[in-house]
Write a structure and sequence with these properties.
The protein has 13 helices and 13 strands. It is α/β, with parallel strands linked by helices. Strands 2-8-7-6-5-3-4 form a 7-stranded mixed β-sheet, with helices on both faces. It is globular. Bound molecules: pyridoxal-5'-phosphate.
């Protein structure tokens, strides 16, 4: 008997404990948004917080720094504390500031200390390119040569990494390892605890880029003993385009001098003494550089409320059910049409999105968009689909698969050009 997928989807939606959150987001009118791993949707809460901050600017001017509620002066620390439960950190171990890439820069400048034979940074060839550009420039700034000092772990299948290979590369020439929590293309989830333990046993400092895992996967950064981590807030966290990024520093390291210092990292009570000798706050806040963007800090503040109401454990549970349902349908309905799942199948090995691969991926994405379904494309052959726990339904997932089926069976993608756009 063939399965009635739509019927199954609706039954799953009926019993979904998070279904009440969907109406708090601004969803596309006649479409399906499956791209929350690139830019999460706006919520009523985020926009309300943003409008409140704009109003405070309108009515208070400079007074907003201390008189706004919450005050702007400590906004980065406050949303850091609200963020902490999502990543398993103490409230003072997280600050929201800068961008993913600028946070990597200040953290690498702090934790990459080449000495004697230990001069290399271990990363991987599947990492988001911005991270590799940043690491190369950090190596150059410390007098090294990226061709020699940036070690890139290779992937055997072009999709995933093996922890054993990564650990095998952590030898006495490696000073720092920087690895992803979830790989941005395949969605593979790495074992942060195991990698951290192995790194520390070998005298290697280790940090994680959690841009693709935060907001869909719970973390235990403190208990896992990561030295540092960073992530963006506009993907699964729905903070808004360019909202302040996350920065985690393990308490053990609060005494270290921030690599790229600035006055917003000064001990808060004395920041306005304007002393010319730098004294950084003994918290993640010490790693801030300059004045925070208050407006986007506010939208992030509003967006985080939804997570703290829903709970990251519940978010993860629904996210796995959604991606599991999607994987099952790709295997059963789309595999005969040339599609393949590029994401690890085991729940403990995958994050919040699924890489659906096809030789015609780009043109299929164009055809999906024409139907009002928003995916994203990563070259050469990956369609990334992120059914998001807080605002997508099982029915959204079923309808997306049904659309993919129609597009390929009817060769609808042939109507589109192979030329790619600047942002995909
Ligand atoms: C999205 C993403 C970034 C983006 O960096 P920005 O500085 O926010 O532009 C960096 N690294 C990874 C792994 C990402 O997924």
């Amino acid at each position: 008997m063939t399965r009635n997928w739509l019927h199954e989807a609706r039954a799953l939606d009926d019993t979904d404990r998070l279904k009440g959150f969907r109406c708090r987001f601004h969803l596309p009118k006649d479409g399906i948004y499956m791209d929350g791993n690139s830019l999460g949707l706006a919520s009523v809460d985020a926009l309300k917080a943003l409008e409140r901050a704009a109003e405070e600017w309108r009515t208070r001017g400079i007074g907003g720094w201390l008189e706004a509620a919450p005050d702007w002066f400590t906004y980065g620390e406050r949303i850091g504390a609200a963020m902490a439960p999502l990543v398993g950190a103490h409230p003072d171990e997280v600050v929201m500031t800068g961008s993913t890439t600028s946070n990597l820069h200040t953290l690498a400048a702090t934790f990459y200390a080449p000495e004697g034979e230990r001069r290399k940074i271990l990363a991987d060839e599947l990492n988001f390119p911005s991270d590799l550009y940043a690491l190369e420039s950090q190596i150059r700034m410390k007098g090294g040569d990226p061709a020699r000092d940036l070690l890139l772990a290779r992937s055997a299948d072009g999709r995933t990494l093996e922890e054993d290979d990564l650990i095998g590369m952590m030898d006495e020439t490696v000073a720092l390892a920087l690895l992803p929590g979830v790989l941005y293309r395949s969605g593979q989830l790495l074992d942060i605890r195991r990698l951290t333990r192995a790194a520390h046993e070998r005298g290697v400092m280790i940090g994680f880029d959690c841009a693709h895992s935060v907001g869909s996967v719970p973390h235990a950064l403190h208990d896992d003993d990561a030295d540092f981590a960073f992530w963006c807030s506009y993907k699964h966290l729905n903070g808004g385009p360019g909202a302040p990024a996350g920065l985690f520093v393990n308490r053990r390291h609060f005494g270290r001098t921030p690599g790229l210092a600035g006055w917003f990292g000064y001990v808060k009570e004395r920041q306005f003494d304007m002393s010319i000798s730098f004294e950084h706050a003994r918290s993640a806040g010490g790693w801030q550089m300059g004045t925070p963007c208050v407006l986007s800090a506010a939208s992030l503040d509003g967006a985080l409320k939804l997570f703290n109401e829903a709970g990251i454990v519940e978010v993860r549970e629904k996210s796995l059910a959604l991606t599991g349902f999607l994987i099952e349908m790709v295997d059963e309905r789309l595999f005969p049409l040339g599609f393949e799942v590029g994401t690890p199948r085991k729940p403990e090995r995958r994050g919040g999105h699924v890489a659906v691969e096809h030789a015609e991926a780009w043109r299929i994405c164009c055809a999906l968009k024409k139907k009002g379904i928003v995916p994203d494309f990563r070259p050469p052959r990956v369609i990334r689909l992120a059914p998001v726990a807080l605002y997508n339904t099982f029915e959204d997932v079923e309808r997306t698969v049904a659309a993919l089926e129609t597009i390929v069976k009817g060769r609808e993608y042939e109507a589109f050009s192979a030329e790619r756009e600047a942002v995909s």
